[in-house]
Amino acid sequence: MKINQAELIISAVSAKQYPEGGLPEIALAGRSNVGKSSFINKMINRKALARTSSKPGKTQTLNFYQLNESFYFVDVPGYGYAKVSKKEREAWGKMMEEYFVTRESLKATVLLIDSRHEPTKDDQVMYDFLKHYEIPVIVVATKIDKLSKSKKAKHLKIIKDVLELESEDHLVGFSAETAEGKEEAWRYVTSYIQS
Ligand code: GDP
């Protein structure tokens, strides 16, 4: 997809700040440092529209990026930092629930998983949470350029098995360095925007 317009509309902390207008939304979730900002920037051909994810202590926000005036990428704060307080975890959970459970324009979620490692417990919880609320999931296995050709298929299978992906879910190996998987990821994203 060619992106002609990309703009951060709002960094929201609560539902009353979400954009109005009902444009379809694709959420992006993943462990901190998984490569989420790099994924967004590569997908939309911008060097640094999505900043690297906020460090602990910074305000956690849902960042709504409007694209081509026709849909949004919603960047969800990363999870899995070791040094996050109970209070911060609770605030994160509340914000996630408020968005994922109530947002009608949410069409699908891109769940980013580091292709080099087994999905973590947090990744599994996130996947199960999305499935529980019947939100379609596109699993993007990031940093795939770091795996040798022979290891790629093996690691993708580990992700599929550990998360127990269902047949309707999609799995794409992706590299922000080489753009591998970019067209495939857009195909899935587009199918949900248009449905
Ligand atoms: P975020 O915290 O999930 O937003 O992660 P970032 O996008 O900031 O990426 C974290 C680190 O991984 C950075 O040093 C990136 O340069 C690196 N990275 C992200 N995507 C890729 C990729 O596809 N290939 C490689 N080799 N490195 C990547």
Structure description:
The structure is a single chain. The chain has 5 helices and 7 strands, in the order ββαββαβαβαβα. The protein has 195 residues and is an alpha/beta fold. α3 links the parallel β5 and β6. The mean pLDDT is 93. Bound molecules: guanosine-5'-diphosphate. Guanosine-5'-diphosphate (GDP) binds next to α1.
Radius of gyration: 16 Å
* Percentage of residues assigned to helices: 25-40%
Each distinct ligand: guanosine-5'-diphosphate
Total domain count: 1
Shape: globular
Q: Topology as H/E string?
A: EEHEEHEHEHEH
CATH architecture level-2 label? 3-Layer(aba) Sandwich
Placed side by side, the strands forming the largest sheet appear as 1-3-4-2-5-6-7
- Main beta-sheet annotation: 7 strands, mixed
Number of helices: 5
Oligomer: single chain
Relative strand content: 15-25%
Q: What's the count of strands?
A: 7
**Spatial separation of the terminal alpha carbons:** 16 Å
Q: Structural class from helices and strands? A: alpha/beta
CATH superfamily: P-loop containing nucleotide triphosphate hydrolases
| CATH class identity | Alpha Beta
* Whole-number mean pLDDT: 93
